[in-house]
Amino acid sequence: MLEFAEAAHHGRKTFFVEVILPLAIAKNYTYRVPFEMNGAVEVGKRVVVQFGKSKLYTAIIDKITETPPEKYEAKYILEVLDDRPVVTQTQLQFWKWMAEYYMCNDGEVMNAALPTALKLASETKITLNREFLADKSGLNDREFLIVEALDLQPELTVSDIAKLLGQKTVMPILKLLFEKSIINISEEVSERYKPRMRTFLTLNPVYQNQDQLKELFGLLEKRAPKQADAVLAYMKLSRHQKAVSKNELIEESGAGSSSINSLIEKEVFIAKEKNVSRLHIEDEGLFDIFELSAQQQEALNSIRQQFEQKDVVLLHGVTSSGKTQVYIRLMEEALAAGKQVLYLLPEIALTTHVIERLRQYFGTSIGVYHSRFNDNERVEVWQKVLNGEYRVVLGARSAVFLPFQELGLIIIDEEHEVSYKQFDPAPRYNARDAAIFLANKHNGKVLLGSATPAFETYYNARSHKYGLAEMTERFGGTELPLIEVISIAEETKKKTIQSHFTSVLMLDVQQALANKEQVILFQNRRGYAPLLLCKVCAYTPKCINCDVSLTFHKHSGKLHCHYCGYKEDSPTICPACGSTHLEYKGFGTEKIEDELSLLLPSARIARMDLDTTRSRNSLQTILNDLEEKKIDVLVGTQMVAKGLDFADVTVIGIINADSMLKFPDYRANERSFQLLAQVSGRAGRRGKQGKVVIQTYDVNHRVIKQVIENNYRDLYFTEMEERKNFSYPPFFRVINLDIKHKDPEILYNQAAYLAAELRKHFGERVIGPETPLVSRIRNYYIKSIMLKFEKDGVSVNKVKTTIRDVITQFQTTKLSKGSIIQPDVDPY
């Protein structure tokens, strides 16, 4: 970028910048650079631009050129926000690849990638014109109100004035006031990120002299004993730490804020404002020494060796085989080589659990990044990765967007997890696949870890595209858990089932509690009851916005929609026939928790699902309570299946396995096996053999047998045969197109037209349009078109270009009005 800065000094050159706006627009816009900003523009910096009639946006400079746009006159950029780029060149290339691969726009990727606080909010500020003489006689009522308000408060925003007048559109009135030279209108972009400032105190060097200090004490003890206490407390604290904050001193001394302020005024203390981190990290520096087992050492050597030829290696290790220690060794090696490491986890729940372990090895050089962080914290992590302060980053899928400088290793734990896939909004990316591309850009390596790898990954490893290392035994020789399958139908017939718990499961739970051990119960549905049903007319309450039945939640006493968040009171009388015979059908985690507390009144029961972990630290609290044995039974959804490692959990109960196995999806068997194997893997870790009880109606289901035998390979070969026969991944690529419209008839015509246009190019590779399982969400009806393409002999880039052209052509027709089209590449 230096040549642009130099050119600015030599001659008066006119530069143009192509920018990425945080909007879903098909092309990037070009703006003109005012001459005085020539030296300030640089690729990756943020600039403030006007787009549309009056809106201001923060955009990222993507290219700098001397060529003006051909079809329109370029507006000027208004401001350059950064002294140095906040987005690296590698990141911009990564964004471009993601937009192309996942068929979305650069702006949508920017929106997903940048923390909200780096995308600035536009606020129009209104002030009184100083030259305006206070003659208000010619003003109408509304104009008078605005001028009066500006007399009291020198600066108001447009939204403030809208509230004041009680109307939305205030721009025409403001325009008139502006034309009369009564007000000034200025567009101002407000920085959302505010550093966290703390006041730190140091003792005035004058009092380093013992005599002066004694004299000071003598004075204070007589006149201001509280201040004397504060100075004493400062002396005590400063022995053990370099800096003493004002808050710490108040707490230690018991003196109030006013006493400390008096000492600052008397210049006994010198106060200094400092920017402090919001992220609570203590440099524990506990380098907990551990020895690798023979199996772990063998796997580590194999991975190292394969990294010489291959960029991606799969570590296929049974649950509790000690994969984390192997990861740590590889991370240490990458750090020793001066590289950064990204450790991806599928769940925020896991992040909090694993971070405690990794802190022991990497202290403050480890950063954490996920969606539960607030805006300010995310910006802070972003800056620390950019500055190279964080050498290791542990995060959920969005961590792939951080500004790494020299990424040497990416570890993707539980790589099969569906949580790595972003479903809404665009970009609908898979963090695993994106991370492999990102590592390639940095010349780094990728290690995929799983006990039950995704079939695509295992296929790539078997066909030697990826390396493969295996760990077949549990760490420390612990045996795999004993798995028992119980027929719900059989126990219902014998009347030995209590509520939703078979006699076998109840006996095992009671035995575990008697032995002071812990239990995890898994039910893949949250809420109390998924269905409220009228026994007379079979009426079921449905969501007003979506085509789904409402789920009853006992804690709120309301019916909830899990798709759009709509809630309504639970009826006591059927709205259709007036009957009072309403009953709840099915059960979720809330009902399991409720009924268990009646059956086991002395047990301490907790629940872990989306409802109980919404607040920031609730998840960590549940995990800590489980670790500290304050919980006897944990009831939960998928969250409990993933990577939790607790020594005293010996019994796992799967309340109903059928809901997963009978799901209409070509991946249902693979997903069910993964989930059942993952849940089972939580039992009997650290030297104890555990027990897993699977409750089901279909005790002879093939997948359940494969789980009992822990036979991943048998599952893989059976399923792959089917996938080959029915043209599914990994042999074929799949692209889904969802078309949405508020009118079902118009949608039918739009989807039929689009499918017909696609068939002209791709023939029988186009399937549909079909109605998905949930056919309406948030008042939009949905139709899906699936396209399948062979992996070999077909250019996926040409395919995507053609699909884009067909969509663009469709959007130019009148028929497309009101439609939304969402492409989803690799929609697994």
Automatic annotation (TrEMBL):
SMART domains: DEXDc, HELICc. Zn(2+) 1 binds at residues 534, 537, 574, 577. It holds the Pfam family PriA_C. GO terms for biological process: DNA recombination; DNA replication initiation; DNA replication, synthesis of primer; double-strand break repair. Gene3D superfamilies: P-loop containing nucleotide triphosphate hydrolases, PriA, 3(prime) DNA-binding domain. The keyword Lipoprotein does not apply. SUPFAM superfamilies: P-loop containing nucleoside triphosphate hydrolases, Winged helix' DNA-binding domain. One of its GO terms (cellular component) is primosome complex. Zn(2+) 2 binds at residues 543, 546, 561, 564. It is an enzyme of class 5 (isomerase). Binds 2 zinc ions per subunit. Its EC number is 5.6.2.4. It catalyses: ATP + H2O = ADP + phosphate + H(+); Couples ATP hydrolysis with the unwinding of duplex DNA by translocating in the 3'-5' direction. Keywords: ATP-binding, DNA replication, DNA-binding, Helicase, Hydrolase, Isomerase, Metal-binding, Nucleotide-binding, Primosome, Zinc. The keyword RNA-binding does not apply. GO terms for molecular function: 3'-5' DNA helicase activity; ATP binding; ATP hydrolysis activity; DNA binding; zinc ion binding. Its cofactor is Zn(2+). Belongs to the helicase family. PriA subfamily. Initiates the restart of stalled replication forks, which reloads the replicative helicase on sites other than the origin of replication. Recognizes and binds to abandoned replication forks and remodels them to uncover a helicase loading site. Promotes assembly of the primosome at these replication forks. Component of the replication restart primosome. This is Replication restart protein PriA. The gene is priA.
